[in-house]
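Consider the following assembly input.
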Amino acid sequence: MNLNLKIWRQKDATSKGQMVDYPLKGVEEDMSFLEMLDVLNEQLINKGEEPIEFDHDCREGICGTCSMQINGQPHGPDRLVTVCQLHMRSFADGDTIVIEPFRASAFPVIKDLIVDRVAFDRIQQAGGFVSVNTSGNTLDANAIPIGKDIADTAFNSATCIGCGACVAACKNASAMLFTSAKVSQFALLPQGQVEATERVQNMVRQMDLEGFGNCTNTGACEVECPKGISLENIARMNREYLSATVKG
Amino acid sequence: MGILDSKVPSGPLADKWTNHKNHIDLVNPANKRNIDIIVVGTGLAGGSAAATLAELGYNVKTFCYQDSPRRAHSIAAQGGVNAAKNYQGDGDSVYRLFYDTVKGGDYRSRESNVYRLAEVSTNIIDQCVAQGVPFAREYGGLLDNRSFGGVLVSRTFYAKGQTGQQLLLGAYAAMNRQIHRGKIKSHTRHEMLDLVKVDGKARGIIARNLVTGEIERHSAHAVVLATGGYGNLFFLSTYAMGCNVMAAWRAHRRGAFFANPCFTQIHPTCIPVSGDHQSKLTLMSESLRNDGRIWVPKRLEDAKAIQEGKLKPIQLKEEDRDYYLERRYPAFGNLVPRDVASRAAKERCDAGFGVNKTGEAVYLDFASAIMRYGKEKALTSGMKDADAKTIRELGEKVVEAKYGNLFQMYEKIVDQNPYKTPMMIYPAVHYTMGGLWVDYNLQTTIPGCYSAGEANFSDHGANRLGASALMQGLADGYFVLPYTIGDYLSDDIRTGAISTETAEFDEAEKHVRDRIEKLMGGKGEHSVDYYHKKLGKIMWNKCGMSRNAKELQEAIDEIAALRADFWENVRIPGSADTKNQELEKAGRVADFLELGELFAKDALTRNESCGGHFREEYQTAEGEALRDDENFKFVSAWEYKGEPKDAVLHKEELKYENIELKTRSYK
């Protein structure tokens, strides 16, 4: 198939960016979206031009590195996939495809389609852990039975890959889904409950400091999340936060 | 010989580690505050080491090329992590895990290291549960297990098909706790370009800030390299696109010996290549072999019809299918170790029985598992005479609960529904058992330079068993390095901060700058990928699943020629003082072009077949690997001497005092 690509080019964090047209021929439907960009980049390099820089690494949908807005949607049109798992069979010959970086003031552009998501790391550093030393001298792993339903729900929250699609999808650029997924995982498990109060307060405080917007319950984050992280996490975090505030 | 001292403690095998820990030197907490440690790589090994060292009180600096430590490729490990907990009561023990690992590695690993690995494996599970890692559980609330290839017990702990992700996020969380305390300084989007030695000891690194292009100096009292494996040498592999050998190779050039480079694991269950545009391969977890049955058509004409799209697999009758693993290896069947399964698939495909367009694929079929689970579910749900359709539906639900995310991933990539038609799989490069040579303390041949996880060679011999990579990464990082590195650093309590304003740092930085300049100065004929793909083809065709002397020699010559061409003609647009992904790739490929030649040389030197290293000249009449314990029961440790062709071989003889060497049989 032949495509008309419109791609955001930006030299560095301080330069002004712009959309540039790239017609691309001979795209095969078995290609992944990123392999399609590889083909374009190879052509640009052979012409002596600078290739389009984009974040990507595992290319199997688990590392959370790839991040782009395709025709206005984070990770493109398919549900429950990252860009690296999106295949060209989801597009048709003659399509115009608009490719931009994730847009959020807390995610500044580094170059072309690459954004800086260090703010996410700082939210995790503020409290996304259980304060247990890695000595190996802990309880036996089976000392505390955990109901399968609870373990499975905690697991589902823990599958967040930290890609930032939730922020990019949100009109307020809120990071509630991301933050609440970690808060929920630990709030559900006995190991995490001990310091639940402090954790939720610290992580929410950091989230606000980073300049992410507020949550107005539009639910776009859940729709665009490649891992299907549920809005229930946000509800649980709100409950946790409220109870932490009451406890003081 | 003396040059390779493995420093294995004396005494009975089961007591070595405890005795060693009891007798090594410790650093007191006040002195730890004055000691800096650099950890390069933040996967399971690096992340866990960094967290633990910081927790002990050392000042840790971490480096990773990714934008966050959480993205290291450990995250993609699917199946699970082994531990000798014997929760299932099926006869598991530390000894059995040790024995299985040594046997699985085809008797080319160091007994003492493997025993220690098995010994600390149980701590890993305790530790991870304490950190809030959500492992799979049974209805009674206790941890669930499953079995993996090459073993007869159920000792694998898992979190659906995302065990690596959950363990890595656990280590990342432990790191975050220390970053929060100011004990770890995390440098993301940074790449180590050289190791700095002062008075023969590793004292720092030169790194490039990948965003600004700045070349930075970082000093420390010890350097830990936990930078993963080098499978991207083959261009197509299940590794992440950025995985590379640069840190290990730079250390090698500075004097760290490189061990067993030719020991590569080619994983049997990956999604087959779809075309020339392919940039990477996707693994389907080995856990699928618990329930999937591997087959190809019995008759060539059926295989041909399938290849041409005229026949569908589900149309082929049971008696017309060749379940070749069950046929050849009745005891282990579909759960033979990875090297055996991969070679068997290649053998069938080479004989013309492959099942996709290119003839390079075999089936992994869940139909019988779906019916088996369906029947059980029907019975336990009180449906005594459910029809086949209902049983099938029930069975599909059970399979979905076990492997749902893997099936979904397969369908996204291949556009076929694996519940209804068998999956197609083919072997792909997945793991490298070779790596930096380390002694019992995980120290390389450079004092103060340590290596952990996949980056070292130590535990898996010539073949790694499933669910052992996660185990080794965390064992090294949480439970081994923190002890052994303290022993070394106890001599450094009066050293004080290491200055970066020294002749050694000047020299290393100049070396790095010259190299970048040389890369940028290529005449510009071809892209980096052009060379990387060419190298990958040579490696796959001549140094892949089966090797012979003639082709290995050809590979050596071709790689040397390709390397010369690369340095002359590579084209890197843009500049070096800014974000430049092509420059990053070029630096990595330049190292692969050296390692590739050493790899082929190592394979050519090893005149035997063992584990993942299969030399066509050395096989039994039935086509099984023929090991030569008399002449090759050693670790090859290569010393850098300039060109790869000049590398000097040192041998660490392997002693088996607790395990009797046997021909590995899974029949």
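Chain A has a mean pLDDT of 96. Ask yourself how this observation constrains the way the partners meet.
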